[in-house]
Amino acid sequence: MDKVRFATVWLAGCSGCHMSFLDMDEWLIELAQHVDVVYSPVGSDLKHYPENVDVCLVEGGIANEDNLELILQVRRQTKILISFGDCAVTANVPAMRNMLGGAEPVLKRAYLELGDVGPQLPHEPGIVPELLDRVLPVHEVVPVDIYMPGCPPPADRIRATLEPLLRGEMPLMEGREMIKFG
Amino acid sequence: MSVKTLKIDGIDIAIEEGATVLDAARQAGVPIPTLCHLDGVGDIGACRLCLVEVGGSRRLLPACVTEVAEGMEVQTNTPKLQEYRRMTVELLFSEGNHVCAVCVANGHCELQDVAIQVGMDHSRFTYRFPDRGVDVSHEQFGIDHNRCILCTRCVRVCDEIEGAHVWDVAQRGAACYIVSGLNQPWGEVDACTSCGKCVDACPTGAIFRKGSTTGEKERDRAKLDFLVTAREKHEWTR
């Protein structure tokens, strides 16, 4: 059987879900027998999201223009997109800025009102991506195939989600072990 | 006392007149999810999680405030009810600002439990991200309106068990919120006895003890049961 073309991406999240992924420990060696890691901040050095990806874990919500561009590309080039962790599923902690309104009040609060030394708004077009007005969960931007809540999802949950996929089956996302938020 | 007989999910049940469909279901061991119901205080049918189908009625009825009737046929777990329950829970999550990861009740939250029970892996409704406040003016406790689902357990437990009636509901619709006293900061309400029953009654992390951090809120729900038993059955020891 051909290897599964596997990717992970990191959007507006803390990387905790990726740390939890690494927490699968020795099962990662087993996983490596079945997949080609074609894109991942923790498993590959490739800079461009490739074509024909079979499975992609998406950590984080959509908070800025880079996130938006990448998630659209991921959706176009991926068969099974997994919302990986609470930030992808609910927008979670990064979305707590949504209560302040749009991007402008958030930036003013963070960089002017709370700026200790030389307060100024960040503006480097092409280098620093512009914030979107609201942080959104992935499924409010593109269709999602599997939702894996958790902050972070425990390693066992990640494994229980991926194992059936390697056999060509869909995982059953129900019960406390699989869908507890937080 | 007159007895009524009815069927819940095909199970024959006999129960005293005046009991609710929820009482009857519990007696028969049929699980119906609830959130605003709290043993020992009056029911108001606020959360709509306990909706059931009753033969002969086109409307779905909340089990907690529907009295049993002779010959009633009740269904508690049809695909239609499962779908409505999941939507209800999704609406609760998308209405407020429920961030489990940083909540005092994480792991001990009845809203979180119900989400698992109804199989909610994400919300199909757009999150509102309302601008709500936090009141930490009370010496011992705080209320975070972001986490409130307006079940009014605090209102009822304070009124019916403590007899202080510190809490009530202000405004209407999406603007509803829980008020203390005459819409004063909680810490300035003389009527509050600082008994903490509202903390124990709250199903989420909305009302909490100050100083508790993520996942540290554990309730002493047995205290409320004890007080009700003491009053109703005169059993004074726990």
Explain what you see.
The complex is a heterodimer of chains A (182) and B (238). In chain A, 32% of the residues lie in helices and 21% in strands. By secondary structure, chain A is α/β, with parallel strands linked by helices. Chain A has a single domain (4-179), classed as Rossmann fold. The mean pLDDT of chain A is 96. Chain B has helices at 21-27, 79-95, 110-117, 153-162, 197-201, 221-233, and strands at residues 3-8, 11-16, 51-54, 60-62, 73-75, 134-135, 141-144, 167-170, 177-180, 207-209. Chain B is an alpha+beta fold and 238 residues long. In chain B, 25% of the residues lie in helices and 16% in strands. Chain B has two domains: 3-75, Roll (Ubiquitin-like (UB roll)), CATH 3.10.20.740; 84-233, 2-Layer Sandwich (Alpha-Beta Plaits), CATH 3.30.70.20. In chain B, the strands form three sheets. Chain B has a five-stranded mixed beta sheet with strand order 2-1-5-3-4, with helices on one face. The chains are: A alpha/beta (182), B alpha+beta (238). The A-B interface holds A 83, 86, 89-93, 95-96, 98-99, 134, 137, 139-140, 144, 147-149, 151, 173-176, 178-182 and B 93, 97, 99-103, 106-107, 109, 112, 115-116, 119-123, 126-127, 129-132, 146, 215.
User: Share of helix among residues of chain A?
Assistant: 25-40%
Q: Please indicate the percent range of residues of chain B in DSSP E strands (runs of 2 or more).
A: 15-25%
Distance between the termini of chain A: 37 Å
How many H/I helices of chain B? 6
Report the strand count of chain B. Answer: 10
SS strand fraction of chain A: 15-25%
Largest two-chain interface: A-B, 29 and 26 residues
Model regions low in confidence, pLDDT < 50 over at least 5 residues of chain A: none
The third-level CATH topology of chain A is Rossmann fold
Estimated radius of gyration of chain A? 17 Å
Count of separate structural domains of chain A:
1
CATH architecture of the largest domain in chain B: 2-Layer Sandwich
CATH class of chain A: Alpha Beta
Radius of gyration of chain B: 19 Å
Q: What is the number of helical segments of chain A per DSSP (H or I, 4+ residues)? A: 7
Order of H and E elements of chain B: EEHEEEHHEEHEEHEH
The CATH level-2 architecture of chain A is identified as 3-Layer(aba) Sandwich
Q: Which strand order do you get reading across the main beta sheet of chain B? A: 2-1-5-3-4
Strand order of the largest sheet of chain A: 2-1-3-5-7
Q: Provide the CATH top-level class of the largest domain in chain B.
A: Alpha Beta
> What's the story with the biggest beta sheet of chain A?
5 strands, parallel
